[in-house]
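for ur thesis appendix - MYND-type domain-containing protein. copy paste whatever u need, i formatted it the way the template wanted (i think)
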Amino acid sequence: MSCPLLWSENEPFYPYGDTSPVCYTQDLVDGEPASILLLGCGDPMSILQTLHANTTGSQCSRKLDFTCCDHEGGVLARNVFLLTCLADDYVLDLLPSLWNLFFDFFIDKSSVTVLFVYCGKLLDASKSLETWDASPYHGFIKFSDTNTLSVVRGHWERYLANILPPEDANHLKDRFASATHRAQTQHGSWFNYSPVRSAGPLASFAMRTMLHGFRKFWETGVTSHDCETIARAQYVNPTLVHSRGAGEPGTPEDSDTFKLGVHKGLYPPARFYLAKAFATLNLAEPNLAQKDSSVQDASLLKVVVPAAQKQFFRLCMVFSRAIRQVGRPAAADSTESPSHSPISLTFFCGDALAFCKALQHHRDKNELSTPFASAPWSATRIVFDALSDSSSIPTSFDVIDTSTLTDDLGLLNILTHTTPLLKRSSFSALYTETLAPCRDKDGDAIAGTLRSLVRRACCDLGTLALLLGVVPASYVSGFGARPSGFEMMAHRMVRVPLSQFHERLVWRRPMPGTTVVGSQSGARGGGAGYGVEFVPEELAGVLEGVYRRMFGRERGLDEAMERLSVGGAGGDGRRFSDAASVGTCYTQRSYAELVAAIRENVCAGAPNAEEMEASWRRTMDALLELLRGEGDGQRYFQDLCVQLHLLGLHTADVIQPPALDEQRQNCDSSAVFSGWGTIPATVCVVLVVPGQRVREAKSSLDELGTPTLRCEIFGSATDQAFASIEAAYGNVLVDTTAPGEENGVGDRYRCKVVRFVESDGERGLKEGGSDLVISFQVPAAIFMAEPALSVALAVRPQAKSSFGSSTESVLGPKLHVFSSRVDDERHVHVVAQSPFHPECASNGGTGEGSSADVHRRVGEQENVKIVMDDKHEKVETMSVRVDVVGADAREALAGGAAVQMALASGCAVRVLWGGHTHVHAFPLPVDIEKAKLRVARRSSYIEVVAPVATVMHTHNMLFPIFLTPHGPALWNMPRIALDKLPLLVLPNNEHVSRWIVPCTDSMFSLRESAILDGLRPADTDTHRAFLDVKNALHTIIAGAARIPSPTVNGIPGVGHRTAPLVFGLGNPREVRCATLVFVTGVRLDVAAHSVVADAWVLTVTPALLPRRPASLASPLGRAVWDLADELVQLNTDAREARAWKHLLPAAVERCRAGRWAHGAACEYRVREAVPLTVGDETDPLCSCGRGVGAGEHAPFRAGERWHAFAPHVTRAALSPLYAPAYMESGVGVAAFGGRDTRMEERDVCWACGKPPRRAALATGLQVCGKCRVAKYCSGPCQKKDWDKHRWACAILKKNAPS
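the 3d part is after this line
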């Protein structure tokens, strides 16, 4: 019920993903065991990539425990098949066949043999949970329940059943080929960016080749489309045939009736990193830009496809080696115990949100049986019957990855259900991913997509962080590791609408308040034992705004259904416009669950239960009054009140009106409750839709695509809709036990009981004898006020869905699938409890429960009090009051000791007075420059009041590092393994700058480019220093890659030199402290679709290098002075120098894994500070990694020019810092020379998009008076566009041709 019930006959099958794999542990503390939850897990490539990233040699650096959930059983069956094959001792011989089986539509005979043999083994092992536990696969693969094992076993059985003899296989292949051909022709002119995305920064060069390969794959059914491979591939791949949305290949005789369930946009090589493959091609070769298919085929067959297969084989072998070492005894002379698997996987087949609820239920109540259905359209409950005393399923996770479920389930649903399962640590990570673009109110897909995160959040991101306790790390930091502008630019280059926009975010709990954190980061926000406290009326205003944004278009759709506009030829088609469309992510149950999660977060620190309940009642009363005050969504108001009541959040007068007791006494007058004893506040309505009626309406429902279903209760004075419904195919049985006898819940209310018997899904419906049973909760008072009501199952079409007159003739003008009077006992039953399950309220849980009180030296912190702005949209101030409790501290405060404050971390303020200190912890970054102190010396408390720093450009919190028991932890920078990244061979060719420059330029937004060009001032001095660091990174990366431009963003260039190259931050000859950056190469950060400089850094301090002439007496001193001829000087002022000293420890820490570890005497730990210092004449780095591995690189080897520096340098990874597209306008425009790509649309208004012939002015478009480039049809359009154009205007004017 958390999502609307969809009629989804044609759900696509995703046997493998369409984005490159990721490493799930890149944002965790190095070496710490990781428990990882994968929702919508898809194929196992990212699992294998994570194992590969954590493996050095043959050893895995951490224990990996994966819990994998997917609603598609075919995905899990394929995953288990592949992973169990990799446990074979002869896996090397299997790899080519495994590629064919996992990716190709058509396979050869050897692949069929592999499928037959290993499916047979799996069927023998999966007869029951007991046989699986006894199998060799149980050591690394488990199932959470019997149902999951049964589902995947069913797929393995169907795989074997469809291994046909050649004569039958040819017929099936022809039919399958016909289906793939239809799918391929349906692409038409559609621009599919998915295959191109895998090339990362080289996407523009890969576009034609990858799209050619995509088309060839769907034409031939094989990845390697050479004649020999096509000739061998004579069998249809059974693993790609069977899915929820596919047809049964053996039943229909007409090939046109066969449905191919596989999604039409998949292409196997796109699942791997292909930037290196295209970087090795000669990009200057003109044939690559031509349409000659033979050239494209050669590139694909000789470079691209082999590169993808090589990665697949490497990942498989890493997993195979890890698994095949399990249980092997140690050597005879060794005292070590047998090895254990570094990786374990537990699989669950079902709905992701239901699985999250079930995990919380299992954790909170320690019950294996849960009240949650495993999937929509199913009454099967989730029961963890595979668990035992010796095995358990995790209920708290270091990492939760939600794939692209945000597009289907909604961001708020994802956050509501996952945050209670995320560990209460500042260093746990929640990943969300989106591919679906959004349009703004003007229909602009690109502008809408850039703001899509805020739209999906339904409120300000800072406010959302306070409500749910998690926030995007890039929102706090103001930068991310992944570029975001390439896809939009690619769509504009080919002049097609934006079909996809890939955005992957990491959500974090707030930063700890101190640099040193314990083994447990604390309860709230990773280290703070507090809650957040709102003014009830202000919180109600926030919640009202969220509700309006979640359901703001309900009334529009209802009105549209009353006045369907006629469209299409002949006037026989009906179409819903965009203006009347509504999202398919949320129901009123979704909102109630969100409110429950918010209540848990904002009320957790209340001083006592009575105050908490009183405050919450004020909030809910105010909220319902606001929602009741306007007409939007009033048809769903009772549904909302029911869901709030069921979750124990609030009981409105709709549920228990003042006259309800009197109505209950007169309930005999109502046929609905005739004979009832006690009438509950809410009752369950069971609507039985005859199977014959469903079969009649099926074609009409299919014509509508994937409409949402809802129930309606209507009468002469009643018209209410209920979207929170459950459905399943089967039959209902009415319990005729006489009142007073034992009949379960009915005995309590002396009412009838309806029991449900589930059938085999739609098969039972097709074979007859099964009905569609709908269940939903309503207020009992609705039947007391008007007994003569009707109940209907209605359809809500999607945006732009259209249908013909035949559909309207079947469903009627109100699109009712079926309706019946309440007193029709054949089809409507009003009962006390759902026939599917006992209604169980779940408030979202509290994560891991309360943790121990955080140690405080001199005081106790109260809740963080929040004040919202006048519109109740954004946080105005946060205030924290600390009562001083220590006697000495109180005396010092009362004695007039000066009170000062400074940042302890981005989210904490350290207050100092008279030798005493206390850290005031906040849930969001603090703008320390605008913070205020309130000191009550007599009352002995200190309060800090501060606004939120929306971007963390505070002095010492740009790149925070915290010290944990497992070592330093990064908060906003991902870890990378430099040695595993492809090293570019430089110079590649004279055109390398064609992709390196856009990759580095795209880290600047239009606003940032304007600041660097001196066209506008920076927000603060620290902000300017941050931009100067970004500018220097641009010079270092682009310069090391041989960019021949004389200047780069105003900084002197490096001419035609290439890496190895040395840069100087400051001047080591003239100042006491300077930093040398030795760049030995530029690598492709394939996972981030970016580049990274492989650098070694050295801070030249007086202790290391005395002043002249004493410095010339040492080899290091002479080497420094010998750098004069090759040193590229980057002059830095004091502010930028401090910013660099914060960046360098993070750049070192992110790439040290597998190379060296911090020792017990690490200076970070001894001084409890990272960086060690930011002052002059000191080194910010610890000495643990100094000189490690330098001698392995050519310039530092004996006899080479940098050999003297080898013992003193520390390796660092310097990457571009990309401005988030959802925060900054014009991200990526600088990558195209500062030209706004709307310049390409020379004949349209930049604001409304109208061409001249439709413009308001008969004379055509007029140009902007400043830049003379932007064009508008009217003054109002220009004024409307100014907020977008203002910063581009100055750059366009500067770069416009004279």
